[in-house]
Every structure is written in structure tokens, then in C-alpha cells.
Amino acid sequence: MSSYSHHHVSRDQETAERFRHALHDELLTLPMLLAALALTLGPFVSQLGPKDAQVNEAMVGLILLFVVGRRLYRGSGLRSDLVVAVLGAWMIVSPFLLDLQNTAVAEGNRILDLTAGSLLVVFAGASMLTMRKQRDNGDHGPAAPR
């Protein structure tokens, strides 16, 4: 392999590595941020539905805003992905658990909770899989720009 082709392969690997890190740290975090904003702002905007469900959404949304904001600022890791996945799973089951405790849950709240929770679980899982692929490929961080 000539020096030129070796340099070209190295640059292609560097580009692919940067793309994977951008995908992981920014593109996968954006839907999480949107879900967190919807959960946080939804109860304040609509003012409809039972207060128990709205408090649940607002509290989970605020925690998510903190975790997802930290992901954007410092990069993501397994811990933040697990927190997002657990909060997403809670949003999926919470309408049914709150309903079992004779707590009112409106249909709009249920749709928001199920949609946001499903998105959070899917994107946290995709983030964990991307991290695993990076680890398996020996990628430890984005290469420094030249």
C-alpha cells in the first residue's frame, strides 16, 4: 500500500469515526431533548387533564432536561443512556400505574406519555448500541482535527 493510499484510508477512518460520534452525541440526543421539552412544557401549555399526570410529566421532563443537557454538553455515556431509558420506561407504564391507584389520567396525557416514553427508550437503546459498536471497533473518542 502506498503512502498516499494509507493516508487516504486513515482519513476515511477518521471521517467515519467522527460521524459515529456526531450520530451518538448529537443526532440521537436531539429526539430525547424534544421529548423532554414536550413532557416539561406540555402540562403548562394545555392546563387540561388531571394534575397528578401533569406533575408526573413535568418532573420527569425536568430530570430529562438536565440529563439530556448534560449529554449535549459533556457527551453521552452508559449512565445517561440508562437514566433516559428508565425514565422512558416509567413514562410508558406510569399512565397505567396511576390509573390503577384511582388517579385520573386523561387520554391526552396517556398519548403524550406513551409516545415520549417510547421515543426515549428507542433512542436510549440506539445510543447504547452505537456506544457498544464504537467500543468493539476500538473507537475511544473523536480524533483531533488537523
Structural features, described:
The structure is a single chain. The protein has 146 residues and is an all-alpha fold. It has helices spanning 3-27, 29-46, 51-74, 78-100, 107-136. The longest helix has 30 residues, at 107-136. The radius of gyration is 19 Å and the shape is elongated.
The biggest sheet amounts to: none
Provide the β-strand percentage band: under 5%
Low-confidence stretches: 142-146
Radius of gyration: 19 Å
Principal-axes shape call? elongated
The rounded distance between the terminal residues' Cα atoms is: 23 Å
Features:
146 residues, mainly alpha, 5 helices, 82% helix, disordered C terminus
Question: Secondary structure elements and their pairing?
Answer:
Layout: H1 3-27, H2 29-46, H3 51-74, H4 78-100, H5 107-136
In brief:
The chain has helices spanning 3-27, 29-46, 51-74, 78-100, 107-136. The chain contains five helices and no strands.
